[in-house]
């Protein structure tokens, strides 16, 4: 955010600069006033009392160790549930996309229907009903698995869509070349198209991982376990009776976790972008040359020559 | 499937409850999100920083925790309101960050030549914004904003998951805990309700999209 976005206004002149400075001061004052008002309200309700903060932030406090023990378990469980969900979602997502690509228009209709229903359903409902419906069919699992199943039911469809977009974005020649060298359609999808689509869509897939990490917190709302991060926070808050401070810390932990994932996504994006950028030019040239040649062959030298 | 028929009133009530949450939150999120987007593209640095700070904080934390804040922490600070309002507030605050990003990306997608040309023919800032940039940005914004809106409709179930929102999910939750045996039909009923909302919206949005689409 160093340079101002440029679409809307020119590089500011002296008068605009002065105006921007005045507005800056005013807006800082307004924001500061709001902050002070909030602070006063917090103070009035005793939110700044040290015993509300020290168990969370001061290592000397007697509860500090147990609080952070809980939080550590919470982080581990959150990451574990998210990791399991993403792995299952990836496997099923690849299977779904492969099936959709290989089946005929009518044969894939049921798949499309199921996918649309799952994608249109709130993930919280899928988790809730994984925990309610599965036991009725005799599948008794721990709460963690209900969370993972609910998350997977939603996210494998989303990941399938991401991969499908990736396949659609590939040059058509990839598939044609695969078929031309004698691979079966299934081999072409699995060995040629899918790996490239996966690479192309890696940043989007990582962003989806952020969504999954966030959604693990739904367990705190509708399941009795596992002790993921927000559930750990709930338990700590019940013990210390300081919801503001505890949830602030928990939110901070989520933000740190997800920001790291976000950084990973931008890093991957940049790396892939550079790799593609390096290759794109020659590939495009090749393709341009070959189409030009084709044109020359099919429609006579003169026209082809002019076209090139 | 008897559960669905017998409790149709309950489901209908829940459906309306969901719609109520959605409509109020949508208005709140659109207003707040537009304000945030204006902050993020303004020439005033502190506002820009506030906007981007808000967006990155909210986008990286779960909606659940935002709702914990509005539902449990605000009353602690003496802000006692019915849960419905607190839930709508939380959902609006959360969705606003995503609305802001959609609108900002729309503004940034307008080629800078457009605004330059507007300035070159002597339009003021307000004129160029109102007659050149915004009409183009709004069209680009329709698809991403649409998916934000649909995501918000599904997120309204999380407000209901607190069990007091009186929406579709709250109804389903109550029915399953009251009867215990007929879970699957209740699930089907709830899914139908949400699909009715999301699919209708998606259809409307795609019509809108094809109407306002521009070729670049």
Explain what the structure shows.
The complex is a heterodimer of chains A (308) and B (216). Chain A is built from 13 helices and no strands. Chain A is mainly alpha-helical and 308 residues long. Chain A has a single domain (56-275), classed as Orthogonal Bundle (MetI-like fold). Chain A is flat. Chain A starts with 13 loop residues before the first helix and ends with a helix. The model of chain A is unreliable at 1-5 and 277-308 (pLDDT under 50). Chain B is 85% helix and 0% strand. With 216 residues, chain B is mainly α. In chain B, helix 2 (8-41) packs across helix 5, helix 3 (45-60) crosses helix 5 and helix 7 (125-161) packs parallel to helix 8. The radius of gyration of chain B is 21 Å and the shape is flat. The interface between A and B is large, with 52 and 59 residues.
Features:
heterodimer, A: 308 residues, mainly alpha, MetI-like fold, 13 helices, flat, disordered N terminus, disordered C terminus, B: 216 residues, 9 helices
User: How many distinct folded domains of chain B?
Assistant: 1
* Cα-based radius of gyration of chain B, to the nearest Å: 21 Å
Counting DSSP H or I runs of 4 or more residues, the number of helices of chain A is: 13
Q: Give the strand content of chain A.
A: under 5%
The H/E string of chain B reads HHHHHHHHH
The CATH topology label of chain A is: MetI-like fold
């Amino acid at each position: 955010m160093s340079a101002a976005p440029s679409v809307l206004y020119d590089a500011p002149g002296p008068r605009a600069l002065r105006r921007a400075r005045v507005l800056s001061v005013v807006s800082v004052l307004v924001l500061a006033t709001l902050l002070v008002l909030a602070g006063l309200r917090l103070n009035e309700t005793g939110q700044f009392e040290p015993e509300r903060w020290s168990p969370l932030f001061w290592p000397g406090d007697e509860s500090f160790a147990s609080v952070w023990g809980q939080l550590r378990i919470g982080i581990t469980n959150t990451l574990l549930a998210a990791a399991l969900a993403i792995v299952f979602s990836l496997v099923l997502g690849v299977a779904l996309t492969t099936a959709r690509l290989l089946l005929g228009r009518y044969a894939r209709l049921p798949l499309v229907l199921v996918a649309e229903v799952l994608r249109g359903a709130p993930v919280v409902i899928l988790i809730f009903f994984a925990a309610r419906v599965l036991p009725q069919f005799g599948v008794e699992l721990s709460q963690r698995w209900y969370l993972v199943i609910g998350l997977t039911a939603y996210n494998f469809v989303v990941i399938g869509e991401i991969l499908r977009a990736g396949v659609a974005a590939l040059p058509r020649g990839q598939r044609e070349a695969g078929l031309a060298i004698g691979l079966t359609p299934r081999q072409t999808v699995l060995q040629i198209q899918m790996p490239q689509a996966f690479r192309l869509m890696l940043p989007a897939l990582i962003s989806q991982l952020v969504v999954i990490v966030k959604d693990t917190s739904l367990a705190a709302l509708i399941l009795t376990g596992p002790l993921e991060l927000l559930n750990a926070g709930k338990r700590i808050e019940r013990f210390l009776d300081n919801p503001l401070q505890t949830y602030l810390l928990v939110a901070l932990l989520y933000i740190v976790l997800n920001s790291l994932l976000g950084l990973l996504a931008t890093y991957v994006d940049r790396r892939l972008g550079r790799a593609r950028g390096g290759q794109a030019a020659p590939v495009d040239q090749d393709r341009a040359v070959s189409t030009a040649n084709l044109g020359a062959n099919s429609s006579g030298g003169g026209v082809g020559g002019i076209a090139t | 499937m008897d559960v669905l028929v017998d409790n149709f009133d309950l489901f209908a009530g829940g459906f309306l409850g969901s719609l109520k949450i959605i409509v109020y939150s949508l208005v709140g999120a659109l207003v707040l999100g537009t304000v945030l987007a204006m902050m993020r593209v303004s020439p005033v640095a502190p506002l820009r920083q506030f906007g981007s700070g808000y967006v990155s904080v909210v986008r990286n934390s779960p909606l659940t925790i935002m709702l914990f804040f509005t539902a449990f922490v605000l009353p602690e600070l003496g802000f006692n309101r019915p849960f419905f309002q607190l839930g709508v507030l939380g959902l609006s605050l959360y969705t606003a960050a995503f609305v802001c990003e959609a609108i900002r990306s729309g503004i940034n997608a307008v080629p800078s030549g457009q605004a330059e040309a507007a300035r070159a023919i002597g339009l003021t800032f307000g004129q160029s914004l109102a007659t050149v940039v915004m009409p183009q940005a709004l069209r680009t914004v329709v698809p991403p904003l649409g998916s934000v809106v649909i995501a918000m409709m599904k997120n309204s179930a999380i407000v209901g998951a607190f069990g007091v929102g009186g929406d579709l999910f709250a109804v389903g939750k109550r029915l399953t805990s009251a009867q215990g045996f007929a879970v699957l039909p209740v699930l089907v009923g709830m899914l139908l309700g949400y699909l009715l909302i999301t699919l209708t919206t998606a259809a409307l949005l795609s019509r809108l999209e094809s109407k306002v689409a521009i070729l670049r």
